[in-house]
Specification:
- The chain is mostly helical.
- It is 58% helix and 2% strand.
- The strands form 2 sheets. A two-stranded antiparallel sheet has the order 1-2. A two-stranded antiparallel ribbon has the order 3-4.
- The protein is globular.
Amino acid sequence: MKIYPLQFSSFKNINNFDRIKAAGGFARANQTQSDTFQKSVNTNSISFGASNFDLKKLKGLPCAYCGETMLTKHDVYDMTELKGKHLSERLGRYAALCHDNLSDTDHEAVKFVRQVAKENPSKTAAELLPVIYLRSRNKMLLKQAEIYSGVDKLALEGNLWELHEYINTLKTQDRPLPNDMTVEELSKFLIEKTYIKYRKEVINTISKMSRKTYNDDTASIWKQIQCEIQQLPSSGDDSDALLVKLISQALRRDPKGVNEILSCDDDRVALFYSNLLTAITPTAEHIKPQSQNGAGTASNFFAVHSSCNGKRSSTPFHEYVLANAEILPNVLNYLYYIKTEDLSRASNINKVEYLQGICKTLKEELAPIADMGDIKDFFASLDDICLADKTSLRAPESRALRLKAAGIFEQKIKSSGSESTLRKELDELYLELLKSFTQNLHKSYSKTIKQLFQEQNVFAALAVRYSMQMDERLKLSKIDSVKVNTMLSDKYKDIYAVPLRAELERLLCTDTNDKYVDFIDKTMHDLFPYDNIGVYCLKVLANCRNENGIYSVDKIYQTLEKDVFD
């Protein structure tokens, strides 16, 4: 989700719309390197050296490097309260949102969990764990059995009787488990490690045997055996083995499996689902590397995906930016989120101090390239985020929608013969969009209220009706464009939508009617359609209208370029 774009160059003339149309997708940083984040001793916090920045509670937190949303503690605990179908949909949403951050094995594992959840719509996230484990384990055992048979055949050929007996013992121990196991029973089974032999243990045991009997006569056989056992399912390249490992770690409460951000020792279910999507969980990244005496304070840290962490190694930040131009817009996106988010639950972070500290650190680290035009623009945007408190203009989330919105203004500009005609057409477009917006908003409220009354959810219907009566957006007028912009801003959305959603969830979402989760999501989208082209165009016009009522065409150009080239 891109929130606060960065302007890299200025519009010169109308032909720049062609440049907007030709613009490609967002470039991505290299995501092949491993995560070098040092795990925190405190399993409930992101470690920022001497201080903890409580990002785990910020739902929708974007990665400061790639810009995509991260899976925070709030998100995972919210997800684990869902059942079957809704859990499957939520997992799919997260996997799609950060598709490039997950490996092929991760994707296969998520796909399988979603399939199991769909097939068991009444089961909770916890009740699904034994089902997922048993089915994955049974498939893994079949793969192992085939390999064990090949090893046993080689053992008999080489008269390796100790290995032959060991393989038969493994086959005996790999017996099926009851299909009706509960989470508690499975946890007990895993803690006691009954009939469990792990891949590493099997390989090490067979390797020790090889050292005892390895000679010129058995060398060839042992080489073949070593090749066979290396094919045993691994969590790195086999989704069934990965699921068995993750559930085992969660239900055994293995300290080595504890996720440093999302898990609590007393919530093993959340631990599994967070580890399933661990690549998109937040970790701490030094702006100035530790190897260069970077400070261990919050003002020297970003929150980035686990999969994005460590890609710089010890590369100075300004060099990393030169090699990855998309970093700066994503940094602004991240900081703008911090600026606009309610941090009341994050008691150990002072928003103003953090933003100003980050601003200072970034300017120091980018000083070697401060004369570049793009960096000057970045510093200006940085000051605006960290020091000012202006109403924001959030563009639609999809780049395609933004390009389409630019096309609407392009058509108006090219079709007008003069400046006065253009302003008249823009004014007519403004009135048309404003009328359509208020009509659709009224229609959304009325439809929601009617449905709630029909289903006998009277108190919820009354809550929505009260919100409808209080909503100033239904009283918007052409004259007060400042008010229009305020009523369409992200700040207004956050202040207004959060209480309404909370009230609807309180009145509707119980254990017996969780079908309303999707209903509430759709209601919020209809009442706050920030990914709607018409609403975005209306916000552009409202934001670019002078106090005397005249539209600034130059400001429209600047706004559109800023949003398209973010």
